[in-house]
Design goal:
Layout (H helix, E strand, L loop, with lengths): L5 E3 L9 E7 L4 E6 L8 H7 L8 E6 L5 H9 L3 E7 L2 H11 L11 E5 L6 H6 L7 E6 L14 H7 L5 H12 E12 L3 H8 L3 E10 L8 E8 L6 E2 L3 E2 L9 H7 L10
Parallel strand pairs: 4-5, 4-7, 5-6, 7-8, 9-11, 9-12
Antiparallel strand pairs: 1-2, 2-3, 8-10, 9-10
Helix pairs in contact: 1-2, 6-7
Length: about 270
């Protein structure tokens, strides 16, 4: 990822924020991201995109999309894929719309759109906001990893992006299984200590969980896990070899460089 020049957001944004235009996949696409407030996408978004199968096609739901980095990376790697960026925060949704209008992203026209909606809605309310049942082939998500009992950031947009809310991960998983087609895939990144929560939320919904630990360095415990699963599958859980993102000198490993730039893919159990 390359951080670009800071720019002022356009006047028609409801809550103007300072932004930067950041380059990803060695400049193959860019995204507008907030500076000094809100959540900025980075390695997690790129790892999720690299976790989709090489033949990914059909319609992808980017749940909690922010300005759309994960979905755009997925589209850049998979020419047959289309995407819907699902984001409830109006400021971030507007940044996503403007991101799609950037010159560097015009080649994605017709393959991606923004849906401003709350993914925790259920039933008729969820359908009414545009999240139709069994309409997506794939879903990706980087859910908020904190809970209401934990100390929130004083920045409102950042707190919203990082705090899970009353019903926790279950509300995200409930929506994912509802909007995915039968045998559709869900890929997520989450804190490693919450593997039990992930597994519990999958019961009766997803199976065939394939877990790839993500280590900052080879001698460090994994703080994050990438998880791929399939709707309705009865296959057992599998833990795969981990990914190491940095060498002993703190430089990105060759594998990490490839994953972050759309040149490599995460290996899950078949």
């Amino acid at each position: 990822m390359t951080v670009g020049t800071e720019i002022a957001d356009q006047p028609n944004t409801a809550n103007p924020v300072k932004t930067s235009e950041d380059a990803f996949h060695r400049g193959e696409f860019t995204a507008l991201q907030p500076v000094g407030s809100g959540h900025r996408a980075g390695s997690d978004a790129l790892l999720i995109a690299a976790s989709l199968p090489a033949d990914a096609s059909g319609l992808l739901a980017d749940m909690g999309a922010g300005s759309g980095v994960a979905a755009l990376a997925a589209l850049n790697m998979n020419p047959q894929l289309r995407a819907v960026l699902i984001e409830k925060n109006p400021v971030m949704a507007e940044l996503a719309r403007k991101t799609l209008q950037l010159r560097s992203n015009l080649r994605f026209a017709g393959r991606v759109r923004v849906l401003e909606a709350d993914i925790t809605f259920t039933g008729e309310k969820r359908e009414a906001c545009g999240l139709k049942s069994e309409s997506f082939d794939h879903a990706i998500m980087n859910p908020p990893y904190n809970h209401d009992a934990q100390r929130a950031s004083p920045d409102m947009m950042k707190a919203e992006a990082h705090m899970m809310g009353l019903f926790g991960l279950d509300s995200w998983m409930r929506t994912a299984v509802a909007i995915l087609k039968p045998s559709g895939t869900l890929t997520m990144i989450y804190r490693s200590e919450k593997i039990g929560e992930i597994n519990a939320c999958c019961q009766g919904r997803f199976g065939g969980l394939s877990i790839v630990p993500v280590h900052g360095r080879a001698d460090e415990p994994a703080k994050r896990v990438l998880v791929n699963m399939r709707k309705g599958s009865r296959a057992p859980l599998t833990i795969m070899p981990g990914i190491v993102t940095h060498d002993d000198d703190g430089k990105p490993t060759a594998l990490a460089e490839g994953l972050m730039n759309g040149l490599e893919r995460v290996s899950f159990a078949s």
